[in-house]
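I am going through a labmate's work and have reached the protein record below. What it holds is a sequence and that sequence's fold in token form. Please read both lines and tell me whether the tokens look consistent with the sequence. Do not assume that whoever made the record got everything right. Thanks in advance; the entry in question is below.
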Amino acid sequence: MLEALIVYDRVSALSWSRQYPFEFAHAVGRTGEASLVGALGALFEENSNDLEFVSIYAYALGKIGATAELDALDKFVQVGWPRR
């Protein structure tokens, strides 16, 4: 559903993104919508402690070619990932 909203109703997709961050990130990756890198970054700030989200975030960044954000994510994981 979010994938279709990204294509046909971007405003609605963005309004659902905070409630469904994993699904939104996956949809961004599948659509390849590089213009949503900022929305992904905002979701990362809110969900950076969730390994499942971080994984799909990395996927989405790779699919949209967001190399600077991938580099920042790499540093975050190496330095800032919570160790348990």
